[in-house]
Design goal:
Blueprint: H1 4-17, E1 31-33, E2 48-52, H2 57-65, E3 69-75, E4 78-80, H3 86-90, E5 96-100, E6 103-109, H4 116-129, E7 134-138, H5 146-149, H6 157-173, E8 177-181, H7 187-190, E9 196-200, H8 212-216, E10 221-225, H9 229-240, E11 246-249, E12 260-261, H10 264-268, E13 290-296, E14 301-307, E15 330-334, E16 337-339, E17 345-347, E18 351-355
Biased composition (Low complexity): 284-300, 309-323
Keywords: Signal
Pfam families: Glyco_hydro_114 (PF03537)
Length: 358
Amino acid sequence: MKLLLPVIMLTSIVLTNNVEARWTPRVGLTWNYVLGNDVDVSIEKADVVDMDINKSVQKIESLHNAGKKVICYFSGGTIEDFRDDFDQFMKVPGLVKNTFEDWPEERWLDYRVSGVKPLIQARMKRAASKNCDGVEVDNLDGYQMDEVQAWKNPLTKNDAIKYAKWLATTAHSLGLSIGLKNTLGIIEDVGDYFDFAINEECVKYNECYRYKNFINKGKPVFGVTYNGVSKYRDALCKNLNGLGMSMIVKEKHKLVQEGIIFNGKTYCGSSFDDGFPTSRKVTTTKKTTTTAKKTTTTKKTTTKKTTTKKVTTTRKTTTTKRTTTTKKRTTTTNKKIATTKKGVTVVKTVIKIVTKKN
């Protein structure tokens, strides 16, 4: 019995120490946003690839083998009728609401209904089982939309904050990192719960500066700008100088693999400061294990300890403080890879423009 307890304790320590930590992305990683078509791993240059949760385990594994991290996309504020769990959402009383404007296949969710939680948790478990490194949960900003405000009892900002915190806590419990998608109105309230953020078109609306505090905490923001560098060159240079945001620029309103990883010094001049730490190399932190080797001879016993050292690099990001008043509430979102119930994969690439209320 005296020998059994130490053996059990040692086994527990070894198992715990060999568990890989959750992916913690850092400021300065490059990314690509590819919801609209397949990913050719052989030509992908970005460090991080964001794609639909319906992508195969094999595709995710191939990206990992190429040294990439993978973010898996799904909507947590709406339900699309092509999702394989659509019927399960429809069975929950009061959960599925009216149609998302301009998206006949997509309907808003009243995520205050408790029945949504096991369904979203199941999606996150699916992402974890596929070895996604993180998840992007879309459409948390329904409280700003006219069609949601038309409900008898509409969603509020506080509802979004509560739901966002639950999403982040749930993702972390499953070993997943999680990003806050758009929804700038709550970033100061929930930013500490999230590992990264994803933004569409903050350059177009001159509101990228609102991520300053989030980035200063060492958390990356992955941005996408549509309609090409030539159209938004000046705005890109102005908004991103000194900020530390990673930007992919798409030539059109399509989330295909082709795109430009924006380099400010190339497009803005040598005085451009991307705001990134000096070194962009980022790795996933792993817990280290200390093991003991015992060597026995006929005359004596020698004990050697081999310790793997953990090296931590602290990076600081400095950005220039500024105050700007924004006057718009328009979000452009691209979609998505759909898998029909018959198992046929359909690529949907469409454009959504909705007007938000302040």
